[in-house]
Amino acid sequence: MLVELGHIRQSELDATLSIKQEDKSRKFCAVLIEYGFIDEHRLMELLATKLGYPFVEPVFTEIDRDLLAMVQAKVFSRLSFIPVSKENGHIVIAFADPLDLEDHEAADRVFGRKIIPAIGTRQAIREVIELHRRGARHSAAEVADDSTIIGIVNSLFDDAMQQGVSDIHVEPMKDRLRIRCRRDGVLGVHKEISLELAAPLATRLKVMAEADIAERRHQDGRILYESQFTGMSLDLRVSFYVTVHGEKVVLRLMNKKGELLDIEDIGMAPRMLRKFRDDSLASPSGINSGHGSDRSWQNHHSV
Q1: CB 246 within 8 A of CB 172
Q2: Contacts with 278 (C-beta within 8 Å, 6 or more apart), sequence order
C-alpha cells in the first residue's frame, strides 16, 4: 500500500524487508522510520486509516491526570501506550503500535475491557510518559541555560528538515509553549514545553536572525541554518509578533539549495504518474491538448 500510494519506493520497501529478515525482532514500521524512509507522523496516519482506528496527538496538559495515575511509572517505562480521555464510560488509549499484543494485554489489565484503541506517534507518547514520570512541577522548572536553548532550536530545525515541514509556529500559551509545524498544508502540534523557555527561545531565534533582541514590536529576520548531523541547509524567513502571553515566532522554511524535484519524487502514486505522463506530458500542446471541451471550460472559468 505504501509503495502503491507513492509514500515509499520499492527499493526502500525491499531494504526494510531485508533489514527485518536479518533481525526478526525488529518491527517493520520501526525500521521504516529509523532509516528515514517515511515520516512517523504520516505513517501513523496511514496506519490508522488502514486499521480503522482514530489518530490522536496526545498532549500532556490536556490529559486527565487521574487516568495517568492509574498506571505505575515502571509499567509506562516498558510499554508504549497512554490513556488519553474518557468517552461514554470507555477510555481512549493511544498505542504507538496497535498490533502489539503485549501493550494491548497490559492496557486491558489496567483499564478493563472497555477501551477504545487509537494510534499516536511513539515520540508524542514517550514525551507524555516522560513528563508524567518527572511530574508537571518538575518539568515546568526546567533549567533554561544556553545549551538547552541551542539544543532545542537545532533539534527543531533538524526535525523540520527530516519531516518536510514548511512552517514552524512557536506560540506562548497561558500555561505552556506550544510548537506547531505545517506538513502538507496541515498545521499540527509538534511538541509542548515549559513556558519558562519562551523568552530565551525567542531571544535565541532573534540572535540567529540578526534581529533586535530588545525590540518587542513586530520585526522580521532571516536565518541561514546548516545541520551538523545531516549536512542539509535551510533558508528561513522569521517574523516576531507580540501576544498576550509573550512573543510568537513564525518561521517559513525553504531549501537553501533550491533544487527542483524529479517528477518521480513528487509523491504521486505510480499508476497516477503513468497516466499523467501518458495523458498530459506527452501532449504536444500542453495538458489541455486534444479535448474539445477544454477551451469552453477555460472561457467559463476565466473570470
Answers
A1: yes
A2: none
C-alpha cell at 46: 496511514
Kindly provide the residue ranges of all beta strands, DSSP E only, lying in 88-230, ordered along the sequence: 90-95, 115-119, 167-172, 177-183, 186-193, 219-226
Span 179-236, pLDDT tens digits: 999 988 888 888 888 888 888 899 899 989 988 888 878 999 999 988 776 677 889 9
Please list the residue range(s) of the chain that carry CATH number 3.30.450.90. Answer: 142-255
Domain 142-255 has CATH 3.30.70.1290: no
Q: Is residue 173 classed exposed, middle or buried when 0-12, 13-18 and 19+ CB atoms within 10 A define those classes?
A: middle
Q: Which numeric CATH code is attached to 41-138?
A: 3.30.300.160
Nearest to 237 by CA among 256, 224, 222, 254: 222
For the chain, the distance separating the N- and C-terminal CA atoms, rounded to the nearest angstrom, is 40
- Alpha-carbon distance 180 to 198, whole Å? 14
Task: Say if pTM beats, i.e. exceeds, 0.85.
Answer: no
What cell numbers appear for 10 in the block? 520499492
Name the β-bridge partners of 188: 181
What is the spatial distance between Cα 146 and Cα 202, in angstroms, rounded to a whole number?
12
